[in-house]
Amino acid sequence: MALNINTTITTDEGFEVSNAFAYLNIYILNPESNWVNVSYYKSKSDWETGKAPLNANSLPNNVQTEITESEFWGDALATVIHNKCITAIEEVTGASTVTINQ
Question: Is the pLDDT confidence value at 89 over 80?
Fold first, then answer.
């Protein structure tokens, strides 16, 4: 899964990108050690074809997910992680602007 950013973001170079795509690299060692590196792309196609991610330092590029033991061992871990990333991104982009890409 990945995330759709359903608003306009501005890159470090000043370009505006609408409906960007965020790819999550998830690192889970145990409930006390887990984080996500987030890369942003102009589109899902850009990610699929290996294009460089956007320079968007105003958006979080590392999210400390602080997964609890029950979340770690639960049956919805991927969704929990994505929702924690949505919360971090929406602190910048605004409420209800990020959705899970299906």
Answer: yes
